[in-house]
Amino acid sequence: MRFLGGCREVGRMGMLIDTGSEKFLWEYGISVQSGEKPIQPKINLDGVFVSHAHLDHSGLLPQLYRLGYDGPIYCEPATLDLLSILLRDSLKLQKREGGPLDYLMTDIKKLERNVRFLKAGEREDFTTSSVEFHHAGHIPGSVMPLLENGGKRILFTGDVKFMDTQLMGGAEKKLKGIDVLVSESTYSYTNHPNRKKLEDSLKKIVQETVYGGGICVIPSFAVGRTQELLIILHELGVPIYMDGMGIRATEAILRHPKSIRNHKILQKAFSRAHKVERGMDRDRIIESPCVILTTAGMLNGGPVVHYISRLYERPDCSLVLTGFQVPGTAGRTLIDTGKFVHEDLEVKPRMRMEFLDFSAHTDHDHLIEFYKKVKPKKILLIHGEKPEDFAKELRKQGFEAEAPKNGETVQVS
Ligand SMILES: [Zn+2]
Ligand SMILES: [Zn+2]
Question: Label partner for 318 (CA 20 to 30 A): which of 138, 153, 381, 396?
Answer without folding.
Answer: 138
